Structures are given as C-alpha cells and as structure tokens.
C-alpha cells in the first residue's frame, strides 16, 4: 500500500487532478480526503477550517483576463495561474497544505486485508504489529508501515523452473531424480522481516539441505514407494521447521510434497525392464493357474464319470461289462475297415494298398471274409 | 509568494540552514541494521547491536565528524561453491554447503573486514577447508547419512571460532548437496543398471518357478483324484479305460475310416458270430 513512498503517490494523485479543476480539488482534498475515506482531519490541514471549496463560477470569475496575472510557482506549465481566493490571496499555500495533508492521511490510515499484517517502525525502530482491519499510525516520516501477506501460502518448487534433473544420492548410493514443492507462510511477521536477510532463499536452502539429508537416510526403493515418500515428506518438513526456527525466521512450513521421484533418465530403461519382468512373471503364473484349473477339473470330471459308471457296474458287473464291451466294439468296428482272417494254414493276401486307395476315395467299404464253410 | 520571499527572506534561509543542519546531525538506524559511529577514524559507539542497549531509532551525531557505518543485523548467508571432497575411503564427492551467520560485534567487523562482503570472502575459504577436513575423516557412506549431524556441528564450531575474529557468529552450517563427480556418477549409473538387470532376471526366474510349481501341483492333485477314483476297482478300471482307449484310438470322430482291423476268427468279439454257443 502507500507505505513506501507516500509523498510520491499522494502528491501525484492530487497534482494530477489539480490541472483540470484546480483549486477546488486542492482545498477539497484537505477537507474531505479523497483517497482513504477517513473523516478525521490530519493535523496538517486543520488550518482550512472555514474554507468551503469555491464553486465553479467563482473559479471562472477569477480566471478571467481581467484577473491579476501572477507568475504562479505551481505545478502548471507556463501561463498557468492559480485562481485567487476571494480575499485576494493565492491558492498556492492551500494547495500545498492540501497535498501534504493528503499524503499524511494516506500514510497514517491503513486498510489491512484479512490475510495481511503489517509491521510498524517508529523512526526505524520496530514498535508493533498491526492486525487486519482499519489501522492508524503516525504519518510517514515518523512511522513506516510495511504490509505483508501473512496467511497466504507460498509454494516453492525445487528444482526450479530450469527443468534440469537434480539427482539426489540415496543411502545405498543410488541416485534418484526428485522434484518437490514446499509450501510455507509467515508465522511471525516481525521475525520474518527483521531476522533473516533473504527469507525465501533461506527456505530454499533449508529445504534442499533437509531433503538431501532425508533421502540419504533412505534407500532407493523406499524413495519410490508411497510409504517411503510420505515418511520423507514428513521428515523434511520437520527438519526444515527446526532449521528455520533456529534462525528465528518467522516462517511456518505447511507441507512438503514430493512431486515426482524417478530413476535418473540414464537408467530408466533398466527400471522399465524390471516392470516388464514383473508383468511377465505374473503372466506366467496366470497361465500356470489356468492350466492347473483345467487339469484338475478334467480329473474331477473323469473321476466322477468313472464313479457313476462304477456304481452301476457294481450292481450288475457281468452284464454291464458285456454291454460296455459290445457297445465299444460296435462303435469301433463300425468305423473301421475290418478284415477277418481264417487262420487255419491259409495264407491270405492282404490288399493293403487297395485298402488305402479305397479309403482315400472316402467310400468305406466293409470287406468281410466270411468264415468259410461253417 | 514573491512577497513571502521578500518579507521573510532571512527567516527562510535560517530555517533551511537549521533543517539541513538537523538532518546532518541526525541519523536513523532501522530495525534491520546496526550501526557503528566512527569519530575521526575511531569507533565511538554502536547502535542496535545484538547485545547492545541502544535500539533502533533516531540518534544524534556530530556533523562532519561522525561517520555512521551501517551493518546488517539480520542473518546473512554464505554459500560455498561445489567442492570436491575426498572421503576417508578415497571416494570423491561433490559437496555444497551453506552457512548462516550474523554480525555480533560490528566494531570488530568494521575494523577487520570492513563490510559484510569482506566477512563473507574471509569465511568462505575457511568454510571450504574446515568442511573438507571434517568430511575427509569420514567414510563415504557416513558422509551420506547418519554422521552428517555430528560432522556439521564440528564444522559449525570450527567456523564459528574463526568467524568471531571478524565479529561474526556462525549460527548454522548445513550441507546442501552431496553429488557424485562425473566418473563415479557414470559407474553409479552402471551399477544401478546392473542392479535392475539382476532384479529383472530374478523376477522372471521366480515367475517361471512359480508357474512350474503350480502346474506340477495341479498334475499331482489330478493324479490323486484319478487314483482315488480308479483305485476302488483296478480291474474294472482296466476294462473301462481300455474301452475308452479303443474308442478314441479307433473310432475317431472325423468319420473317415483310417484304420483297418484284421480280426482273427478266434476273437472274443466274434464268438457269437461263429455260433459257438
């Protein structure tokens, strides 16, 4: 806000408008206060008591060619001339007083946002911290007010935007490519302002030191696993907070989040191959399980079938056996070429090539050499 | 305006001179800074030092005689460049550390170092050598891990002792980075790679082993199921299974007769055919 250079901002605002409606603004500024809506009069403008802003007609009257020309020292260009007060005196002192008054007002009234706080230095000496709301201080040269967003969360990403991989050594002397975000805000504004030269840089350094120390206590696989990461995040946060507290930096570390923890790009292929291997192994196991189910089910099915048949067989063993035998023979022999050979000393010619030919013609014929003569 | 100048010329001049004189004999020390007032080359007093009584604020001085040297009161940082450190077991490591210090004795600081930058440039080589010494006593592994803390507190103490000579106090030394130099880095990559290759191979082998075991177990339990079922009547099983076997061997489903069977008239099947009974 208007803490830093109130003369510049206060003066500019009202001298800029002083050009178009001159004196009216000058004195009005002293009375009403244009910028901050504060009804209180600063001590500097107390002199303008009875002065009401002159109405437009007065101004133009005074401006006429017959009006006395003075060389105004005011902020106008050549030929510019301050209108006169009714008493015949110049408006210039009024304008000056008005500008000063506005400046004082702007530097002594502070509207501090809900997330903000401000430190007040009286002649350079830190005296108090302002909370949010409408606050008052002595005007600028005496008290300076520095407003800062206290609650707002400030993230720092490490490594920064220069996308280079920063490799961190793990406890088992492997390397991991790690990037993380540190979120912080201000715990104590006075400490933040007056204890450490470059708080952000300090947070950065503390974060990096803490992260590297924490990762060095873990091994590579732990940095990749979710649980290990959570442990690192917590650890880093605590370390950072301890470090920053020892500096009395007035900073609260809200959280550390590991964005990515990857193997270095140089060895990433080997890491992928491990994943592929895992999947391959799983695939092999799955196939084996499928086979197992199939084999066992088949065994169960066949055993069950046998049991059923056996049950019947036991009721009438002989008949069942015969029946099964004939049924099977029927099935078998009805589908095959059959040759019955009379054995007694007869050498039979077995027309095997002919059989084959016929079978190729797909016209199964049955050659039965009947047992002759019986 | 002109008349103002004509009427009160003298008083305006006097007022202006008085104002300038006042400004010259007054100095403000803000909260962030401490100051040493030097009168004719000799430190006369200090303002707003960490141990001192007089706080930040506005103070008087003698114009032209007193010189005010402002010194940072807040915590300053000192960062060292990457430094190659040799561990006790002859391994190389790139180390990068920072120190945080503040000026506690501004008079001595002004006398001996001149400015905070002077302190920095005085402390930097000391930090380097102290760190190198301290880490050089440790093994590579302990540089990385647990003993870091004790090493650093030694470094801090050492550096602090040196810094006191410059009116500074070292609050903390922390190792920011420990990296491998290029050649060890490459070999580390190779090692990581071979590590993973080994792992991948082991995983694949485990998968194969598990698969084989699963199959064997299935075969075994199938065998048990068969044995339990068929063991009830081995001779019937023999017959039953033979029937099935004939079925599948000779009566193939595709219907084409590919087998030729030569039957002897003595065959069991043809008993009735012959009309024996």
Automatic annotation (TrEMBL), chain B:
The chain crosses the membrane at residues 12-30. SUPFAM superfamilies: Band 7/SPFH domain. GO terms for biological process: proteolysis. Its main location: membrane. It comes from the Bacteria. Keywords: Hydrolase, Membrane, Protease, Transmembrane, Transmembrane helix. It is a single-pass membrane protein. Gene3D superfamilies: Band 7 domain. GO terms for molecular function: peptidase activity. The keyword Transmembrane helix applies. It is found in: Membrane. CDD domains: SPFH_HflC (cd03405). InterPro entries: Band_7, Band_7/SPFH_dom_sf, HflC. SMART domains: PHB. Residues 24-192 form the Band domain. Belongs to the band 7/mec-2 family. HflC subfamily. This is Protease modulator HflC.
């Amino acid at each position: 806000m208007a803490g830093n250079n109130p003369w510049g901002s206060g003066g500019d605002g009202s001298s800029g408008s002083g050009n178009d409606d001159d004196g009216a603004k000058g004195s009005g500024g002293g009375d009403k206060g244009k910028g901050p809506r504060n009804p209180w009069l600063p001590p500097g403008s107390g002199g303008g008591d009875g002065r009401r802003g002159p109405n437009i007609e007065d101004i133009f009257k005074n401006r006429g060619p017959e009006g006395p020309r003075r060389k105004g020292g005011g902020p106008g260009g050549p030929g510019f001339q301050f209108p006169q007060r009714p008493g015949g005196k110049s408006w210039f002192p009024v304008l000056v007083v008005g500008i000063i008054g506005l400046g004082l007002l702007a530097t002594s009234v502070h509207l501090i946002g809900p997330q903000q706080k401000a430190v007040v230095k009286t002649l350079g000496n830190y005296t108090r911290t302002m909370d949010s709301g409408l606050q008052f201080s002595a005007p600028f040269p005496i008290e300076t007010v520095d407003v800062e967003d206290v609650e707002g969360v400030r993230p720092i990403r490490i490594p920064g935007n220069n996308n280079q991989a920063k490799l961190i050594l793990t406890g088992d002397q492997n390397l991991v490519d790690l990037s993380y975000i540190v979120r912080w805000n201000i715990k104590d504004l006075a400490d933040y302002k007056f204890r450490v030269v470059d708080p952000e840089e300090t947070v950065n350094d503390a974060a990096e030191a803490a992260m590297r120390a924490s990762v060095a206590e873990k091994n590579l696989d732990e940095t990749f696993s979710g649980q290990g990461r959570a442990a690192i995040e917590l650890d880093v946060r605590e370390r950072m907070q301890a470090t920053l507290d020892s500096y009395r930096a007035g900073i609260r570390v809200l959280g550390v989040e590991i964005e990515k923890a990857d193997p270095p790009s140089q060895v990433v292929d080997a890491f992928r191959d491990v994943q592929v291997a895992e999947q391959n192994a799983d695939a092999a196991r799955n196939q084996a399980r499928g086979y197992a189910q199939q084999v066992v089910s088949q065994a169960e099915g066949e055993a069950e079938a046998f049991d059923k048949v056996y049950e019947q067989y036991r009721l009438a063993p002989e008949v069942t056996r015969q029946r099964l035998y004939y049924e099977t023979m029927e099935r078998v022999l009805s589908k095959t070429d059959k040759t019955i050979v009379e054995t007694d000393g007869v050498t039979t010619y077995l027309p095997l090539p002919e059989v084959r030919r016929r079978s190729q013609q797909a016209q199964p014929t049955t050659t039965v050499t009947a047992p002759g003569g019986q | 305006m002109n008349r103002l100048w004509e009427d009160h010329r003298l008083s305006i001049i006097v007022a202006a001179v008085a104002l300038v004189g006042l400004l010259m004999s007054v100095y403000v020390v803000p909260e962030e800074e401490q100051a040493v007032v030097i009168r004719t080359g000799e430190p006369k007093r200090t303002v707003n030092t960490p141990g001192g009584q007089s706080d930040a604020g506005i103070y008087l001085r003698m114009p032209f005689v007193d010189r005010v040297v402002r010194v940072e009161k807040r915590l300053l940082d000192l960062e060292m460049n990457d430094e190659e450190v040799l561990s006790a077991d002859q391994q190389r490591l790139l180390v990068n550390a920072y120190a945080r210090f503040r000026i506690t004795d501004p008079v001595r600081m002004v006398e001996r170092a001149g400015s905070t930058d002077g302190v920095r440039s005085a402390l930097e080589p000391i930090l380097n050598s102290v760190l190198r010494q301290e880490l050089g006593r440790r093994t590579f592994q302990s540089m990385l891990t647990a003993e870091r803390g004790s090493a650093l507190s030694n470094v801090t103490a050492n550096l602090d002792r040196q810094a006191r000579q410059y009116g500074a106090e070292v609050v903390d030394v922390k190792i920011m980075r420990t990296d491998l130099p290029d050649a060890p880095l490459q070999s580390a990559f190779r090692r990581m790679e071979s590590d993973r290759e080994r792992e991948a191979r082991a995983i694949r082998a485990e998968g194969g082993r598990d698969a084989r075991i699963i199959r064997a177990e299935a075969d075994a339990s199938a065998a048990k199921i068969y044995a339990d079922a068929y063991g009830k009547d081995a001779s019937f099983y023999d017959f039953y299974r033979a029937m099935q076997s004939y079925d599948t061997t000779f009566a193939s489903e595709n219907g084409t007769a590919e087998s030729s069977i030569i039957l002897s008239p003595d065959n069991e099947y043809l008993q009735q055919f012959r009309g024996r009974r």
